[in-house]
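Lab notebook, bench 4. We co-purified these components, and the gel suggests they stay together. Before we commit to crystallization screens, I want a quick structural picture of the whole thing.
Request: model the full complex, all chains together.
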Amino acid sequence: MQDNVVLSMRNISKSFPGVRALQNVDFTLRKGEIHALMGENGAGKSTLIKVLTGVYPKDSGRIFLDLNGGLKEINVRSPHEAQTLGISTVYQEITLCPNLTVAENMFIGRGNYRLVNWRTMKKRATEILEKFNIPARATQQLDTCSIAEQQIVAIARAVDMDCKVLILDEPTSSLDEQEVEKLFSLMRDLKSRGVGIIFVTHFLEQMYEISDTVTVLRNGELVGEYEVKNLPRVELISKMMGKDLDDISAIRKRKLPDEKADTSPVYEAVGLSSTNSPNAFDFKISKGEVNGFTGLLGSGRSESVRAIFAADKITGGKVKINGKEVKIRKPKDAMMQGVGYLPEDRKRDGIVEDLSVRENIILALQSMKGFFRPFSKAEAEAFADKYIKLLGIKTASMDTPIKSLSGGNQQKAILARWLLTNPQYLILDEPTRGIDVGTKVEIQKLILKLAEEGVSVTFISSEIEEMLRTCSRLIVMRDRKMVGELKGEAMTQDNIIHMIAGEAEQIG
Amino acid sequence: MGNGIRKFMKSQLVIPLLSLLLLVIFNLIRDVGFFSISITTNNQGHRVLSGNLISIFNGASAIAIISIGMTLITSCCKGQDISVAALAAIAGSVFVSVLRSHEITIPVIILAFIFSCLVSVLFSLFNGVLVAVFKIQPMIATLILFSAGRSIAYWINGGATPTVSSPLLASIGGFIPGIPIPTPIIIMVIFLVLISLVLKLTNLGLYTQVVGINERTAHLNGINPVLMKLTAFIISGVCVAMAGCITVCRIGLINHETLLLDTEMDVILAVAIGGTSLGGGRFSLFGSVIGAYIIQALTVTLYAMKVPSAAVKAYKAVVIILIVMINSPVVKDFFIKLYRKLFKKQVETKISIKAS
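Here is the predicted assembly.
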């Protein structure tokens, strides 16, 4: 077994101001192995990857890589150096250049500074695109592709560079099921060619489907390395969370909130449409109800909730709040009516990255209070402190810039921002995307708790199971239209899939 | 205490304050009496304070005032307004043209100032609309007024460079009888207090930075980015009018060709030295003001060293390169690492002493 080792990391430690991100972590990767790296938010997965690829310098520890038959110690100082050594990475957040073409993105920064032959480059890119069945043209500008397509281009780019070690950091979080399948077959293909793959993910199902080995981290420390086929799910989750599983099973068994006898809607829209959601739709939600929008990526679920919050320009429709007709033309109007909206893309629409956690938390409430009525520092600190404790946000201090928090903790801070406004209707678009199981469960529990307190919640998630667990009503969308509504007994995975498949199936 | 120092080290004001300190030390070594302040009698017969320190503070007033507006524009529009000096010439011309058509009294001066503010704000709003509504890059948008501004100023006073003289104007540009401190310094202090109050009593700081860092988030949280950008340009317009009028009072005439010539570059530099990224986002108004004083201190120092005035700019450039280099993240990181290494060693020796 020792002979097969392609990468070995020993006693890796790394700290950031106020946070110990990694402490004496070991990690071993073998040839032709798909090795999952799992852990909660802030467990140190991303940090470990970034140390390996030279984004962060390590504080201590040694890294060995198989170079021409023997393990040799390497000292990676930059991602570019990692790449030349044969370590390729696809990061969680897409790190390509949106204003370049697909082909340029595939070949940019490949190490040689000789003149570029555009024609060869285009031809080669087209070949790769065809090989991986990517529905994009080589000359297309990258930001005109969907997020999923961009992700696949990033992976294709990494794969095309001869690599010994391929790191996929949350590659599937923005892919739909077909695309995930495509990626998995690609991963199996690479595996058979002897590439070692490090697969960082939050999706248990996907991990079990594809991985051979799993290394679990918790709070920056190594929990252990396990063979996937000998590790039951329950055990894995308990290793990751380090606590009893009662929480999860409790939430599973929990009775879904019944439809309230009081059915007067809190929010009601008739014929609502926006520039991004041109098909007018009707929608209502009653007090304390949790409803969900489901559908494939691009089915219009996000666009619909954006229209409810007036995040895009409203082009028509009438809105009633608590039975009274109101004008909602911009986000501020919606906020003043007690509507909150947690956007799908945390980095682009959610966080203000250079500002502190405190400023990020108070932002929405502050904006509702008004330009001429700022909170005093003491008030702002009290708010931030309360929610940092309530949601267990892991941060060095409330003055830390939010960009130095892990993804899940950033998400919690944005959630805190909206909870602070005390909304009567809260829209959560993919609040659990790209975060760990523990936080996911916490957020689901929070949603149910809010509903019990009388807050109406719209919840969107790409994991159907998660929606079934929390929602009492599901609206199914296909091709930017609402195609059905499921309630109570009818809410099953099968029914949803059938509805999403809809006409396509009948034709087939 | 240790915590306080660490907090200070992290703040944006470290580099500008240290640079200022270095300049002061350099001058003290060169000439112990450099910063001495003496009481002299000026040519109007008033007893006033004089000395290099006074002339630094006095001379920097215009740059400091304009840099406040520039900081706001830089932070929320991610670019600079290069038309400020030309706009100051327009404001100054309007000021003079109102003054010349009346007998100069205090109400007339106030009226003339309000007029020049209005005109300046209107022109600044024109820039603002180009930037905020039409989304033109600030430097390109303000290039229009940069080229046309001094011609407009020329036209306001019919091509002449009229003088205005009155003891009242002299007391604004120079000294108020009985008060030994130059009036521009007093105006600057009052203005700073006002700005601090505005920052304390409104969300100007928070909103401006949110818009500068993430416009989409600003919109989704009920902040109107267009409005914030226009606000920055309006405030800048007022700042520019103030600087223009003070300068007119100081020199007693309006020369549309030379009034505050090339000042826009000094102002942008003051903002950069003050620790505000020229790419927008987090800002420090007080940093910018300190930046303005650094630039003026540098100029005064060079003149005191008898550097020929034609060569001053080259010397200034060298020092500025140094300051900007120290401010760069690469160098900052290096010093932080160095500090940590030294600090760690101290801890280790302490432990070994204990162990032994």
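The CA atoms of residues 357 and 398 of chain A lie 5 Å apart. Worth comparing against the SEC data before the next meeting. Residues 2-244 of chain A form a domain with the Rossmann fold fold (CATH 3.40.50.300).
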